[in-house]
Amino acid sequence: MSVAIEFCDISKTFLSNNLQACKNVCLKIEQCEILCIAGENGAGKSTLMKMLDGLEAPSEGVIKIRGKSVNIQSPLDANKLKIGMVHQHFMLFDDFTVAQNVTMAIEPIKNKLFYDKKKAEEEVGKVINGYGFSIDSKELVGNLTIGQKQQTEIIKMLYRKVDFLILDEPTAVLTEKEIDALFENLISLKKEGKTIILITHKLKEIKRISDRVAIMKKGELVGVYDTSSLSEFEISSLMFDGGVSLGISRTENAFKAEKPVISFKNVTVQKVNLPRPSLDNVNFDAFPGEILGFAGVGGNGLGFLEGVLSGIIKVSSGKIFHKGKEITSFETKALRKDGLSYVPSDRLGTGSAASLSVAENLIVNSLSEFTQKGILQKDKIEEFTDEMLGNFSVSGTKEVPISSLSGGNIQKIILAREIERVKDYIIFSEPTWGLDISSSQFVYKQIEKLRDKGVAILLISSNLEEVLSLSDRIAIFCKGRIVKMFDNEGKISRHEIGDYMLAQKSDYKEGENE
Amino acid sequence: MQIIYSAISISVPLLLAATGGLFCELSGSLNIALEGLLLIGAFTSVVAAHFVGNVFLGVLIGMSCAMLLSYIQAIITFKMKANMFIAGLAANLLASGLCTVLSFKFFNNKGVVVFNDVQKLKVLNFPIPGQTIFTYIALLLLVVSYFVLYKTPFGIHLRCCGKNETALVSLGLKPDFYRVTAYIISGATCALGGALLTLNLGSFVPNISNGKGWMALVIIFLGNKNPWGLLAASLVFGLADSFSNFAQGALNVPADFILAIPYIFTLIAMLVFSIIVKKKKEFK
Amino acid sequence: MNKKQSVFKNIINTGIPFVIMISLGIVIILSFLLSATPFKTLRYFFFGSFQNLYYFGNMLNSAIPLVFGGLGISIAMTSDNFNLGGEGQVYSGAFTTTIVAVALAPLGIFGGIIALLAGTLLAGIIGGLSGYFKMKWSTSELITSFLLSNAIVLIVNYLITGPFLDPETNLLATRKVPEVMRLQKILPPSSLSTGAIYAVIAVFLVYMFMYKTRTGYELRVCGANPRFAVYGGLDVKKNMVLPMFISGAFYGLGGGLAIYGTFFSCMKEFHVGLGWNGLAVALIARFKPKAVIPAAIFFAWIGSGAKIAMQRCDVTLEIASIVQAVVFFLITCEVFQRNYFKKKEELACK
């Protein structure tokens, strides 16, 4: 096998925050292989590949394609070198067709000026069929499923005749079945002579699909190995400091007999411009001392559930109760008064104010305790902040803007604020997304403590591992409905769960209360 | 009937400004300096026509000046990451300051400057009575804009800037290029609109744009950011203005009130529009 | 690095000195282009205000309404509200104060205070109206405040030149405010009045309000991240109307004090530029109350220099508005460039 791409001593430092994302990386990628680049969040995997795609430029070092040094300044340059990247977040325009998206920036032209719609649809159709996909080139991207949207992204690159296809965390939003389909496609692309580079941190997938795995840790390349020579545990040990298994100890619920804290009765949310409800007849009870996990693939209702629970999204029909009191029409302000504690999925956009200080972020939901006759009590606030920083092991001063803290520390501040004031229930949404191992473990410990205290915990997460390792009971969402609710006792297989998530199976019956 | 013909001719500068502004809005950044660009176009076109002796050349020079100002505004907004409202404000202030300063410098006159040697625009009575050639130029530009925006790659990319900038970057395209170009286009169309105002009179009147740039912004939204909607909305505003002129003559309303009408009307139109958007429920 | 050095570094880092240098450079260029006697023009522009107590005091005096405007805008902007209606708010506030003062002449100083409150309240209501529209219908307060302001200026013009015209003078102005209500001069022969003292007090009060009170905190949170404010349970709706009301009220107060201290009657369009300059002052001060006074004096200096140069040489007053526009351009780059880097970092963290 010949060396197709070589990273020679590549380093990258971001000027705006002085972060060294890559340190002296020397990596050789061979032709016709499937290579996984593995590592935790922040290890430098995406940055390294973005340099190959022309979205970032190396601070030091050189990239060589087939032995020749190249200077890749934009994705168009990368395309010319037959390199293409499918990003983690889709780069598609929902209002335009598949053909338009695929040919964007290199559109076929008629009469020297105008976009040749017909030709584009024909040519894209040829590529689609040639590689065995089954999407209509005339379809609006907005109408496609997530799996199909990803296929569109891949077709976009194949249309540009790439030989090297980079995929950044491609399975994050797919179900088991869609992952199977994706991997089949990748294997057949490899047979056609393409080189596939997969950025991922999912151990099972690394073992399943790759020929070699390059492991990165804190910006450095730890090593490149034949996948068959390493076990999952060994890969994980190389990625993290020690192979850590996350989770909490599951105990018998001491509060099981008590009444539910939060009850959803036939809750439906219907957007005017959509044919299907976003939440469809959702019924569940959350009990004290129990972790109720909500699982599902992105776009199937988890976001709307979070929105309804936090008072941002209005319910079209149905009722919500908090210990018997109806709170259906309560907006966030009223819910807070009623005892809402909520750790949002969007840390920076919703959970914190970047330019305000740590102290100012901590007091927003408990202002009456820190003001007297309208004046802020500076001493009390400082005391509280110091206490929180200590209890939650956050290093740093209280005066700096919160945006200068790391992602893990920001989440700790948010936790501190919400946990400190918790009444009888708390909502966690994507609590460890983007966090490193030690921060994630810290979060899980906090959740465990809350459970032991008798707080009802509603855990919303698209990370199935997380839901499975923490929850006492699990509700699976698919297309806005709860299609399966079960006790987490290991009796249901991962594949069966996947079936529920993709509507292959469902316990949902029309008009029935659970 | 006269009111209708008058409405059409009054709506022309509005339509021209709105067309340019449409490019900006579709590329994802509102240009609030349309007012200043109209003013600059108005002033420089007629002054250039006076100095050069040729109306056509004067208009071209006027367009260049407005395009230069909008280019500067765009560079500051996009390359230097300024706040686009404040940059637009600054452009407006610069425009009005420059007009007064230059008017004083060249003609020693901060008020109305009459140019007797500049030929006034000819009134054409066919096919629509009471129009000038600018009416047809405006319509032509609108149709051209439709084709550019919806049928050419440039226009498609420009509209994508407003929808998903990151996606555009991932394809190797530069959103800033489209935005800056949109600003320059708006400079050109506003200059034409302004030129119409002064060339119609053969003189420059301070603050001749009097809120038309702001009305153009509202027209873009009322017209649902779509070329044909723009045409309809401009005619509505033209009718309102035409009627208020009639009111000034027929009913005895003080001049200041008449001048205030465009602003009040724009304000009410904006409020009505907001109410309608708000009422459109997102959830049942 | 000791404290003095780091303060200095902070100031340099904001780029304000850079902005000031460029705008003064523009003045120099304009003088050469437009004046037959550029050096004389420049001399009067830069140093004219310091020639004697008269010019100096007047310069400080013209800074007073700018301080009030700047404070009001700072409050509005830190809660993410754009008040572009300053011109109309100053004008209408001043006008209302004047005619109520004239009407309440028999009540003496007491009447003067009521009149000032009336002007402040009216201007506040006008500003608050835009905030109300934003709260109820999500209409851009930036556009509504601007449009309302333009219309109001025209209406007040009509009122001054019509029903409220002073028959005893040749000026286009209202009747004069009773002597007992006028402010004391503190630096004769200039017009510098006790308004300056009120301005300093106002700065102090606003600083305390924004950083030490609960409402001030809530406003700052709404401006820093509106979604976070909703999430935290704050009353966001109230915080759309209140800051707009306050900034309108401050503009009106500044206008009223200008009448009591300097003009004594509301002349047609005496206010021109005060609204925009208030905004510029707030921008230069980066919305921090402590920096409003130096920023206001800087702007007053530009305006005063332009006026003196105009009186003594052959340039026109509007040079000041060109300089002002340039300052706007430059300031907005600087102020918002830092926010842009912050946002880029946030996205990179994800």
Explain what this protein looks like in three dimensions:
The complex is a heterotrimer of chains A (514), B (284) and C (350). With 514 residues, chain A is an alpha/beta fold. Chain A has three domains: 3-239, Rossmann fold (3-Layer(aba) Sandwich); 259-341 and 424-514, P-loop containing nucleotide triphosphate hydrolases (Rossmann fold, 3-Layer(aba) Sandwich); 353-421, no CATH class. Chain A is 33% helix and 25% strand. Chain A is built from 18 helices and 24 strands. In chain A, β23 and β24 (481-487) form a beta hairpin. Chain B is built from eleven helices and two strands, in the order ααααβααααβααα. In chain B, strands 1-2 form a two-stranded antiparallel ribbon. Chain B is globular, with a radius of gyration of 19 Å. Chain C is mainly α and 350 residues long. Classes of the chains: A alpha/beta (514), B mainly alpha (284), C mainly alpha (350). Chains in contact: A-B, A-C, B-C. The interface between B and C is large, with 39 and 44 residues.
Helix content of chain C: over 70%
Q: Could you name the CATH class of chain B?
A: Mainly Alpha
Tell me the radius of gyration of chain C. 21 Å
- pLDDT < 50 stretches of chain C: 345-350
User: Helix fraction of chain B?
Assistant: over 70%
What's the total number of strands of chain C?
0
**Could you please say which CATH topology of chain C applies here?**
ABC transporter involved in vitamin B12 uptake, BtuC
The N- to C-terminal Cα distance of chain B equals 45 Å
